[in-house]
Amino acid sequence: MPAISANPLAVLKSRAPQWQFTLQEYLQKEEKSLERHAYYNGQIVKLPIAKGPHNIIAANILTAIKVGIKALDKKYIVFGSNQKIYLPQFNIGLYPDALVVAEAPLYLDDNEVLLLNPILIVEILSKSTGNYDRGDKFTEYKTLDSFQEYVLIEQNQARVETRFREESNLWRDIISTELEGQIQLKSLGVSIAMTDIYENVPLDKAAGKAAKKKK
To answer: Which is it for strands 114-115 and 84-87: parallel, antiparallel or unpaired?
Structure first.
């Protein structure tokens, strides 16, 4: 198994020793739970509660992607934040904020819970998970052969980062900060307006101006 950070979600995990659960035990507990949990090779981690702006953006990006792919000849399937994906090389189960599959979903299990073949993954950044989403989680996602594009969306400012796999170990990183602009989802062959992503979301304009100066 590849080496990863000893504590990939340290900001979310308790410092106390944790019981080691099998993947099957995790799935059984998760099926009965009212809250969502990630699975890290034996450890079960409660996920933070998503706030209003996060949920608005999640709905917006799902809608925008579905509208964008409707006219395409190739079939794509869009999933929301309740779809779990499984990373076999790390024995990890995660809940992206949104994801897209080409043609048909492939699952590890007969119950169709653990998805294996996302082509595009979306994460909406927060203070508690932003560093992990940008770093170790991206490293973990890259172990999936199907994975071609990663979209990272800021909540309080117009800033979207897309990472596209051009070759096996070569990713192209593009940052979009113009609210009147668009992002290109190369894995799908569609464009999405930034205004559609941030519709009804109160943005920190000062933060947006500071981001532009850094570019």
So the answer is: parallel
Structural domain tally of the chain?
1
What pLDDT band is residue 168 in, cutting at 50, 70 and 90? confident
Residue 104 lies in a domain: yes
Query: Domain holding 167: CATH number?
Result: 3.90.1570.10
d(CA 78, CA 83): 10
pTM of the predicted protein model:
0.87
CA–CA distance from 16 to each of 8, 13, 54, 195 (Å)? 15, 9, 30, 44
Instruction: State the pLDDT confidence band at 204, using cuts at 50, 70 and 90.
Output: confident
Residue 78 has a CB neighbour count (10 Å cut-off) of 20
Report long-range pairs for 36-40 (Cβ below 8 Å, ≥24 apart): 36/82, 36/95, 38/9, 38/92, 38/93, 38/94, 38/95, 39/91, 39/92, 39/93, 39/94, 40/8, 40/9, 40/90, 40/92
Does some domain include residue 101?
yes
For tokens 């969306």, name the residue.
153
